[in-house]
Amino acid sequence: MTDVQAPVRPKRKKNIMDLLVQFRWIVVIFVVLPLSFLYYFSIYLGDVRSECKSFKQRQKEHDENVKKVVKRLKERNGSKDGLVCTARKPWVAVGMRNVDYKRARHFEVDLSPFRNVLNIDTERMIAKVEPLVNMGQISRVTVPMNVSLAVVAELDDLTVGGLINGYGIEGSSHIYGLFSDTVVSYEVVLADGQVVRATKDNEYSDLFYAIPWSQGTLGLLVSAEIKLVPIKEYMKVTYKPVVGNLKEIAQAYIDSFSPRDGDQDNREKVPDFVETMVYTPTEAVCMTGRYASKEEAKKKGNVINNVGWWFKTWFYQHAQTALKKGEFVEYIPTREYYHRHTRSLYWEGKLILPFGDQWWFRFFFGWAMPPKVSLLKATQGEYIRNYYHENHVIQDMLVPLYKVGDALEWVHREMEVYPLWLCPHRLYRLPLKTMVYPEPGFELHKRQGDTKYAQMYTDVGVYYAPGPILRGEVFDGIEAVRKLESWLIENHGFQPQYAVSELTEKNFWRMFDGSLYENCRKKYKAIGTFMSVYYKSKKGKKTEKEVQEAEQEIAEVETPEVDEPED
């Protein structure tokens, strides 16, 4: 039994929305899945056409498209037109946050052509890509070359631009940090139409450090150079079951990738990939992966699991078998391992299609999975969307590694969501204080997982219907998110802004540091052209008057001082 007990809640009365959500799978089967398949196929054909062009030709087209963006920005009349937004439809975004800011009058700039891999430089180990390149596209290009982005987010649909301007993590982030930490340079179109290249050591270094987590509110990202790393053909994955209370599960997770002697930079002691799935308050499976050659994987007696086949058991359920059969090892083709959670959308697929994990559905229809998240949003309507916000949780809690046990107990007590996803990442101490930053003086404590230059954090992924909802009990999803945000602020944690947020402006800037961000907003003339990151993330419809008043208030405040580089 877990040491933490969830409160007893009264039963809730069901209504028509419960019925619509319960049978929403009909719309998914007959509308969303077919449209998703056609959409994915059309995008694939576009990617193939792009790959048939030389890098030189792609770069030429890129330069022409950048000129179009500059021209469009210069056409804007600041006194008459609304704030600048991309022309992408609100429902296209992968995140669950409402894109309400586009309901106000705005000035659209079309970035849809920016979805090409511009160059793969295996000598410099740099990939140059446009912002709408997604993870499935880039891994399809790089993996056959035995190189990969240092951090490849698990879901195929996640784009480079979203992972940079927002938040991106993967099982290798305990080595390389967040997705944005692997970027070498940004090509950005500023509010005045100037095109600049920002790196950590050129004249735009402040912009380089301010872009991550800014939600595209400092300028329009049109390309990025990203670090590549050498890889091998297979991933050797070890599945280790853990039984105990939540604090014991947390410690087992920490021990799976962090040597207790503090030798965190020793690659012999630290696996290439790490994740843990917590299935119940007393059961979890820790997974570690190491790159392996084709020759090693195909040695007699080794088990190869092609998890990418459409009929295969969903990965989270496959990993769960370790709780019954004990620790085991298998080899998974590297690209299939990268995208292991795509087909089932982690475990959200079970809610979307309750029978989607059954063998007969996987065999006959698994090739059509997953439903495209944007099409799910486009077909759900306002009332169903609000229902999900109140009765469903999709949140990530970024917390210091040593507080993972506390976070697990909090989630159990307040939400009872299972499974939970645990993935570690480094939070670097950078020359400038960015929106997210490690705890001051963390290096003095010499905690497990930390180094002198980075504090180890963990993403606690909370994705599913809460226990009270599944039992038919009362659950206030909005209040639960508010409590989650308060807990994060109190524990130096962070909430990625792809999710639904209930933060007030005051609490938003208690959670995030805005000094560098606001300094760059003024320096690069973003104020009055792009919406601020809080108002872009803020829940609910933004009126033009509200946004303009907020922008004017920011403009009148004295520019904050930016922390000087640390020694």
From TrEMBL:
- Keywords attached to this entry: Membrane, Oxidoreductase, Transmembrane, Transmembrane helix
- What stretches pass through the bilayer? 21-41
> EC?
1.3.1.72
Q: What GO molecular function annotation could you give as one example from this UniProt entry? A: Delta24-sterol reductase activity
According to the record, the residues making up region (Disordered) are: 539-567
Q: Does the keyword Disulfide bond apply?
A: no
Which compartments does it reside in? Membrane
Asked if the keyword Acetylation belongs to this entry, the reply reads no
Please list the residue ranges that the record marks as compositionally biased, kind Acidic residues: 549-567
Q: Which residues form the FAD-binding PCMH-type domain?
A: 48-231
| Topological type in the membrane | Single-pass membrane protein
Q: Name one GO cellular component term.
A: membrane
- What protein name does the entry list? Delta(24)-sterol reductase
Q: Name its species.
A: Solanum stoloniferum
